[in-house]
Amino acid sequence: MRLEAYWGVGPKTRETLVEELGTDRAIDAIESGDVRTLADAGLPRGRATRILRRAIGGDGIDTLATSDARSAYKELLDLAVEYAVTERAADRIRVLTPLSTQAEMNERLEDVLAARDAWERLEEDDQNRVLEAYERYDNRDGNAYAAVKAAIALLDAGVEDGPFAAIADLETEALEDAATALGALEDGRVREGADEELDRLRTTLGAIEDMDANALAIIEDLRSEGVGDVSAFRDAFEDRLQSETQVTIDRVRDAMPTDATDATDFVGGTLRRLRSDLTEAVDEREATVRTKLEATLEDAEAAVEGAISAVDDIAFHLSLARFALAYDCTRPTFRSDDEAAPTLSVVSARNLSLATRADENVQPITYTLGEHSLSDGDFSQPASEDNTDSNDGRALPGDERITVLTGANSGGKTTLLETLCQVVLLATMGLPVPAERAEIPPVDSLVFHRRHASFNAGVLESTLRSIVPPLSANGQTLMLVDEFEAITEPGSAANLLHGLVQLAVNQEALGVFVTHLADDLEPLPPEARVDGIFAEGLNPDLELEVDYQPRFGTVGRSTPEFIVSRLVANASDRAERAGFETLAEAVGNDVVQRTLADARWNE
């Protein structure tokens, strides 16, 4: 296969990869999703990641039909990467894409949930030991020694389920022997500390080499000590050798020349002979030790290969398991392709972007599109007995596939869209979702459009070009569109939005359209309904209190009187207060005063 056949690989990229890796190795790196190899070859990491996403999950990436859908997808991956136990696992997470079949989604879910359950059963000390082993593995760039040590740590922790089963049958004793051997060898050499005798010989050789480098100084020292005749000099030098090195007396005497003509010749000849003898002894001992270590590795070859192949996969699934645990994610269920009525249904779903903020108290949301099995018990507040437009009740939703979501500013409408988008993206990537329960439809195109407050014809045209074609194509489309009216004048926006709702109904799509123009969209098709989010007042700190759970079949209101009430209460001087009181009269002074009274009453 030609490298240029891969998305994102042009002539310059191909030249870089071929020069650094060769064609075959570059193809292997792309096919295996190896970000690090491509980055080490000179590609920017971001570009390498984009190439691999397309190479590994091209069909899945194509389901992300808008730039906002792709942004939401990348935001989720960034959250998951924070729980990666190795950088290699982080790279694998970064190239995850929506999967093409529900069988693939379920297979990955099985692995991640099994890893989650196994990890959750471990004591904290065992978890820490495993994480420390993976940290060492990461620092050593995933070499064989680090892989074996990580496998030993996993076995010691007792994890054997799901993805961990790959190491369950490995022999701990064989791995420990292999770890000792691998730790003792480096680039064909035996490391210090691997063998006491080899260490002693190397130390002695080093000492002899130091003495040889300072032979003249040693001669002068001996002479300065009053050593005169040849016999006394010989004895003093012998004593010096034994005191400063570990060389044996027999080896010293064998090395001393018998035909030296002077002290310099005598000392130099002795040290040269000792260096030669010790070098030979070091080489012989190292060869013996290396042969023994290599034999140990040969005997443990199967265990080592098993550890190397398993540890990276375990790190990947363990990283995703830790992410699922951190956000209390659960297994979604999938509505099969052959079921007549698609549905998207979430119970107590949480927005992950909000959940990352320590100071946020996230209200779980229950919502549904299409046929559903929701009951009164799925809501934090009881359902109303009818579908009346009541601020106090909860009407169960119908089976409408399209909803128009209305309500207060800062009422969580955009957050609800993001939450639904996150749940669907995670599920289609084969990952658990942040909800008590979720039912996910097949999704061929995910159209997520955030509010873009740019009021010009170019933005309107580009928006329509991004959201209409995927909706018009064959396949199941999920529409999540936020305040479409922000990009054109209200009258035209209402007409266009009504057309989009009708198109979504005609195409049997699922969708949520957030808008403040619900009254202008009437009459809606019977397949669509209006839901509302309500602000309920101000708390004692004059902060807006919102019930983020939508009320089905009910138009939400923006409740400007609450905002005006807060502005009146917080006015910094008399003139400013008078101005806001004029607005209070416009929205209803009695309502403003009642709001402020309720806030004070609740203090």
TrEMBL record:
Residues 400-576 form the DNA mismatch repair proteins mutS family domain. Pfam families: MutS_V. GO terms for biological process: mismatch repair. Keywords: ATP-binding, DNA-binding, Nucleotide-binding. Residues 372-399 are annotated as: Disordered. It comes from the Archaea. GO terms for molecular function: ATP binding; ATP-dependent DNA damage sensor activity; mismatched DNA binding. InterPro entries: DNA_mismatch_repair_MutS_C (IPR000432), MutS (IPR045076), P-loop_NTPase (IPR027417). This is DNA mismatch repair protein. It comes from Natronosalvus hydrolyticus.
